[in-house]
Amino acid sequence: MRLLHTSDWHLGRTLHGYGLQEAQEQALKFLVDLAISRSVDAVIVAGDVFDRAIPPVESLRLFNGIIESLAAAGIVTVVTAGNHDSGDRLAIYSGVLQPDVHVVGSLNDVGSAIELEDEFGAVLLYPLPYLEPDVAREVFGRPEAKLERSHEAVMNAALDRIAADIAERGTSRAVAIGHAFVASSGIASETSESERDLTVGGVQVVPASSFAGRGLTYVALGHLHRQQLVSSADPMISYSGSLLRYSISETRHIKCALIVDIGEAGSEPVVEPVEIPQPRPMSRLRGRIEDLLSDKYEDEHEHFVELVVTDAQSPDRMHARLDVAFPYALRKLYEPEGRDESAITERGDARGKEPLDLIGDFYSKVTGAPPATDEAKLLREIYELVRDRVT
Hints:
Order of helices and strands: EEEHEHEHEEEHHEEEEEEEEEHEHEHHH
Helix content: 25-40%
Largest sheet: 6 strands, mixed
Radius of gyration: 26 Å
Structural class: alpha/beta
CATH topology of the largest domain: Purple Acid Phosphatase, chain A, domain 2
Oligomer: single chain
CATH architecture of the largest domain: 4-Layer Sandwich
Shape: elongated
CATH class of the largest domain: Alpha Beta
Strand content: 15-25%
Number of domains: 2
Number of helices: 10
């Protein structure tokens, strides 16, 4: 049984103001072509299809087009809701879809399998939409034994349902498709800025050990945006990572889809990452403005970039000059060398101080030096202009 594991498409998302619709279309067309050329039996999307609960119309059209293309190729599609999606909205479509298209958003469907067949028998796919603890504990709990308010508790309850169904069917090959923050003991999972925090009660992590002994062969996860292996066996647990780079913190990520081959009972899955083409490279550059604008960084001019300028004094027209050389700059920051970072984060005391003195203190903390004479003059003029307008 050959599966294509993907997640975190985030259709409708922008990147610091840059539209990504065209890039998402190209990346999803690549996945469709990959699924067809590699004779994939099923494409599984582990949550966060959309970037928000009510996505833009063009994102809905793109999603529908991809589902139609996979169905026309005879490929089963299984989509689960992530924490960015609205599970209830996705679940509305479940009753009108083609037989080989499964969109799962309702927690009431947890424990129900999608059964596929190959030469070794049945392979069961168990979709697990995002389990919001405050909602899931009401669905899975009992009046006499209310579940703890935690991600681990509701995930264990959902996995109990899956394990019971596997045992009843007597099938030894099963795949769970979930959306959560799962980590192995002693192994740190890599996060990025574009992932929404899931913390409830101070904890958002589900231990990988929760999946052990449940009769599962493979766990296809979404939520974390870097492709990574959480556990290599009993069962194998993997994140496919996001479709595109969605924050500057993902500069070094290689975005992938995973081709997963499920062999005969008792054998380990074989997982092959396949790189997804990105709209353009991404870089982080740091230095004096003249260095950044020199030929040294000519190859990065068309990249999505973060630029950190380190001149001792704030350069004249810094943003405008950088924009000319780097038209796809995502962030332009000024961090002069020698700046005392601890002083910047230290909470100040404004009591009894004149506004201009406070402005001067703030300037000194940010730049590491007091305002020059002409800068102090300009700050005073701006302050007086604003003061007069307010009063």
